[in-house]
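Onboarding guide, step 5: your first structure request.
Type a short instruction followed by the sequence, for example:

Predict the 3D structure of this protein.
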Amino acid sequence: MTKKTMMTTTNSHHRSIFTGLFLALSLLVCNSLQAQDSGLYWKYKDYDGAIAVSIPGYIAKSGSLFIHEKGGKKLIRKVKRVRVLVFPDGQAPFTDKDFRRFNRKARRHNLDELITVRSGKTRVNVYGKMRKNTIRKIVVFFNEPGDAAGMVSLKGKFNLKDLDDSIRKMEQKSKDGKKPVIPDSVKIPVSRV
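The system replies with structure tokens like these:
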């Protein structure tokens, strides 16, 4: 075997290893993108009557050019991805099995249930993932029977101080002079077991 043929077999061997690693990495990235809302968006986005929108971060950042408020611009620029899935007729096809599966995967991915609001048959669930003092993911499920139902999934890096500052600015700009019911500081209770 000549030196030239040995080099070509070595190069082709390196290419096949590189291709295999690239495919494995691509599968991991695709799996992590689906973990944002545990596949519910992808499962139900093609249902009849569903309105499904996925907005990448660069579009949200370009949308911040049209916001005049400095705090709002700062928050919008930190958005990495938004997914919205709405069923306007109020009949969301989410089953109890879907919610159990979502809760199981959410716990595995450190997504904690932050708020649950129930009023009659109306229901709103808010889940969030925090790391240090930043909120990384927010997933909101809502169901108003007869009106609308769906979910909103938001991924980004939101600093709690920035959220608190923007809430305070909105509080100061209330037009009717009444003080809105907003807590002094935003504190999200998260308990780890």
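Each response can be followed by summary notes, for example: Residues 1-34 form one domain.
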